[in-house]
């Protein structure tokens, strides 16, 4: 009897919690979310679809194969270089902290400028990284000039 | 007072046992989970990337290093009677994976060549700076570049030459990119080559392409029971990443099989045109070569001896010929799985040593995990979490099993006592 009562309480509190948890989210005004956060959220989806398989969910990469995206100068530094890597891929032996990474990264030409900006913003602001966002306007001119 | 000290002793014992530590400070069985009656310890923590190894009578161990470590591509260890190894030197200025001993010679590979060194009666290398280069000029890409080696009983040496790409696409690892027609790289890679053990500077023109259609073999051993070569292949990656219309992420995680093959001259294991699906027990046409996830590839390719789940990376193969382990293990195969990366978003698999029972050169039962716990994690979500990754296997003169780890350069010794 006591068990049934406890179970009942748990169910009630769970459903209650679920309801109360839902409401504030629905009420929360969307306008308060910063453009960078929106870009990060969109970028996460791009990352999961195109990048996570090799660079892994935690951005840690794969030893000997796929470079980590955590705290590396490549990720935190020059934005143009990052855009170029996403657009053209990378077919080089990369050395980071004395370790070598040699897998081929394909070019991701199918991504829109906005998607490139979003995914780069996501990696520059995730896995403990705290670099500035990449804006669409920083991706577009690079491509308009047809640089390779 | 007495009671207090007894309590203290008990608490201390509890503390140590809760940590799984024994009196020598090593965790129990070096953190490995083993079948009853087996025990494990680490004989060395080196911090070098230890790949394949050989263990010889007299306590000498030669370990091939992925990259020269402290200037040496081959590390010499001396194991004392208490089972602790110390570094006794090294030689060879080249990194690599393959190492093997037969008939008084030590054979070792770089990623492009194979060298041999004469051993004296104590199994010491006489002239470490003057090896004979017996094979040279082998193809080396930026992936699957390591060369694993084994010898038969007729003065031949077998060398893996891995495919420099994932699946012979026109653009390697590019979503949707199709296969290069005919995949001409198979002329010089993606197979096992046979050379003589005693000729200098052999290359492709002096060697024989013994078997083809093998994407990348890292583990290989000669089965003395049926006098035949066996190899473990690393199957292709990224079915879902590259062809999402044909494969789900779940299928990507499972497929294709990591295969153990028995190899005879002229065999073709299908790469890159087909891959083995261990769930359907069939060869399927690769999506780069007309496949759609459903099209079968027919019966023209070599049937695997064992088809393991995908991406686990079998890096070491050893047929156990010792007598220390129980009867069940005699002549069976140990396979060291380095562990997967291409199973996201699922947890990764491998990171253990499995055993396959054999009788008369054929599996006589299902494979089972023999030694687990190398990763030090309950679940490995991403390979970087693994503290150790099994790579090379060797049998000691007394029948103990040695396992290398190429993350921290730990060498494990697994023993059985009745």
From TrEMBL, chain A:
Keyword Nucleotidyltransferase belongs to the record: no
Q: What keywords tag this UniProt record?
A: Heme, Iron, Metal-binding, Signal
Q: Which domain of life is it from?
A: Bacteria
Please list which residues make up the signal peptide. Answer: 1-18
Q: Describe the location of the Cytochrome c domain by residue ranges.
A: 38-127
Under PROSITE patterns, the record lists: CYTC
Q: Does the keyword Acyltransferase apply?
A: no
What is the designated name of this protein?
Cytochrome c
TrEMBL record, chain B:
> One Pfam family from the UniProt entry?
TrAA12
> Which UniProt keywords are listed?
Signal
InterPro entries tied to this protein: 6-blade_b-propeller_TolB-like, Beta-prop_PDH, Quinoprot_gluc/sorb_DH_b-prop
Task: Name it.
Answer: PQQ-dependent sugar dehydrogenase
**PANTHER family per UniProt:** HEDGEHOG-INTERACTING PROTEIN, MEMBRANE PROTEIN
* Membrane-crossing residue ranges in chain numbering: none
The residues the entry assigns to the signal sequence are 1-20
Stretches assigned to the Pyrroloquinoline quinone-dependent pyranose dehydrogenase beta-propeller domain: 36-416
Q: Which domain of life is it from?
A: Bacteria
């Amino acid at each position: 009897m006591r068990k049934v009562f406890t179970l009942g309480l748990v169910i009630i509190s769970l459903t209650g919690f679920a309801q109360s948890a839902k409401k504030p989210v629905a009420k929360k005004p969307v306008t308060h979310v910063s453009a960078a956060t929106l870009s990060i959220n969109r970028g996460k989806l791009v990352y999961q679809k195109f990048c996570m398989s090799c660079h892994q969910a935690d951005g840690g990469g794969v030893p000997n194969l796929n470079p980590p995206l955590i705290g590396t100068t490549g990720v935190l530094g020059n934005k143009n270089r990052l855009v170029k890597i996403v657009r053209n891929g990378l077919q080089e032996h990369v050395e980071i902290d004395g370790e070598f990474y040699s897998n081929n990264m394909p070019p991701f030409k199918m991504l829109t400028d906005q998607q490139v900006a979003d995914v780069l913003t996501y990696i520059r602001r995730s896995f403990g990284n705290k670099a500035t966002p990449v804006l669409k306007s920083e991706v577009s001119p690079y491509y308009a000039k047809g640089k390779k | 007072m007495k009671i207090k000290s007894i309590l203290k002793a008990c608490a201390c014992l509890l503390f140590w046992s809760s940590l799984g530590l024994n009196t020598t400070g090593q965790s129990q069985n070096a953190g490995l989970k083993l079948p009853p009656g087996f025990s494990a310890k680490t004989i060395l923590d080196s911090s070098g990337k230890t790949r394949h190894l050989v263990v010889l009578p007299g306590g000498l161990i030669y370990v091939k290093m992925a990259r020269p470590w402290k200037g040496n591509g081959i590390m010499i260890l001396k194991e004392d009677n208490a089972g602790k190894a110390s570094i006794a030197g090294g030689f060879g200025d080249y990194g690599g994976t393959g190492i093997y001993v037969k008939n008084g010679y030590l054979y070792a590979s770089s990623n492009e060549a194979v060298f041999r060194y004469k051993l004296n009666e104590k199994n010491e290398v006489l002239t470490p700076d003057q090896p004979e280069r017996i094979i040279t000029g082998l193809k080396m890409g930026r992936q699957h570049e390591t060369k694993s080696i084994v010898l038969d009983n007729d003065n031949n040496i077998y060398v893996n030459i891995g495919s420099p790409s994932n699946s012979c696409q026109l653009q390697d690892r590019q979503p949707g990119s199709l296969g290069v027609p005919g995949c001409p790289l198979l002329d010089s890679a993606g197979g096992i080559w046979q050379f003589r053990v005693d000729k200098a500077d052999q290359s492709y023109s002096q060697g024989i392409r013994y078997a083809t259609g093998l994407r990348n073999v890292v583990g290989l051993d000669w089965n003395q029971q049926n006098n035949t070569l066996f190899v473990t292949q690393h199957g292709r990656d990224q079915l879902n990443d590259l062809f999402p219309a044909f494969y789900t992420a779940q299928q990507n995680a499972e497929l294709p099989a990591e295969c153990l093959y028995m190899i005879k001259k002229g065999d073709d294991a299908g790469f890159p045109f087909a891959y083995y699906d261990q769930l359907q027990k069939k060869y399927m046409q690769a999506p780069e070569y007309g496949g759609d996830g459903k099209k079968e590839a027919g019966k023209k390719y070599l049937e695997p001896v064992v088809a393991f789940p995908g991406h686990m990376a079998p890096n070491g193969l050893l047929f156990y010929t010792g007598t220390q382990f129980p009867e069940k293990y005699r002549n069976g195969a140990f396979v060291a799985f380095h562990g997967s990366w291409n199973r996201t978003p699922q947890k990764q698999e491998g990171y253990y040593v499995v055993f396959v029972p054999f009788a008369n050169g054929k599996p006589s039962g299902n494979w089972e995990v023999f030694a687990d716990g190398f990763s030090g994690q309950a679940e490995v979500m991403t390979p970087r979490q693994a503290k150790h990754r099994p790579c090379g296997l060797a049998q000691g003169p007394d029948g103990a099993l040695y396992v290398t780890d190429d993350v921290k350069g730990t060498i494990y010794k697994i023993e059985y006592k009745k």
